[in-house]
Amino acid sequence: MAGLEEAGASYETELVVYMRGDNKSPEYLALNPNGKVPTMVVDGVSITETSAMLLYLARAFPDADLLPFGRSDASDGKVMADVIWCSASVHPNVFHIRLPQFFCDEEAGVARVREMAMARLARDFTQVENRLAEGPWFLGDRWSVVDAYLSWAWFRLQGTPFDFSPYPRFADMYERVLKRPSVERTMAKEQKAYEWLEENDLMVNFKTFNPKSA
Ligand SMILES: N[C@@H](CCC(=O)N[C@@H](CS)C(=O)NCC(=O)O)C(=O)O
Questions:
Q1: Do the Cβ atoms of 186 and 149 come closer than 8 Å?
Q2: Which helix (H) or strand (E) covers residue 41, if one does?
Q3: Is residue 2 within 8 Å of 192, Cβ to Cβ?
Q4: Is 164 in the pocket of ligand 1 (CB under 6 A)?
Q5: Atom number of ligand 1 nearest to Cα 16
Q6: Do 67 and 81 meet the contact criterion of CB atoms below 8 Å apart?
């Protein structure tokens, strides 16, 4: 959503409520057969995979400068690799940490799924930390939507046992991302969604949520 805000796109959001099994409903599966969130629908075309959405936004809203494209074909390839890495590695690792019970139906194995995901994510975050030694943002001297995506991961891990202490540069980058007006607007909208979920008793309890019941 921060990418949409940053692009200045006009858009509407619809909540996909796990507790109601919305992401597995026939209507949602018709848009995203993976049953995952998010999904973006543009002019009747459904785009799945967060990386694809960000690459689409960067192309569709070039003035917003979401990604540093256009230096060379090889450089564009590297930028795409960095965006896709976020959704192919960081994002799934966060999900495994938050909801390990989705990946193991035996109680004894659930803690191990989380432990292994935390080890994998620690490798991802070490890469982020190393990149941030080279410049204030993941892609160097300019903010990009990769910083927003990585900050989403940092935000989503709050309240989990993941150890943030080895990543002071990432912690600092997260604080800077939070101050961007686009991110402030996004957080305010998300807060409203959380309140609605709480009021309607539809907030996921990450400790007890059982995917089979959804
Ligand atoms: N590679 C996907 C990952 C999306 C993803 O894992 N979404 C999670 C929530 S953070 C989900 O909806 N999982 C539901 C499920 O796996 O059943 C993307 O980039 O969009």
A1: no
A2: strand 39-42
A3: no
A4: no
A5: 12
A6: no
Our measurement of the distance from residue 177's CA atom to the centroid of its chain's CA atoms, rounded to an integer in Å, reads 14
Tens of pLDDT, residue by residue over 133-154, are 999 999 999 999 999 999 999 9
Tokens of 129: 């930390």
Among 209, 143, 129, CA closest to 171: 129
Q: How far apart are CA 100 and CA 130, in angstroms?
A: 28
Determine the Cα–Cα distance for residues 184 and 214; give it in Å rounded to an integer.
31
* Mean pLDDT in residue range 149-171: 97
How many residues in total does the chain contain? 214
Q: Is 155 in the pocket of ligand 1 (CB under 6 A)?
A: no
pTM for the predicted model, two decimal places: 0.93
Cα separation, 208 vs 167, in Å, equals 29
Give me the domains of the chain, ranges plus CATH numbers: 2-213 (1.20.1050.130)
User: Is the CB of 91 within 6 Å of ligand 1?
Assistant: yes
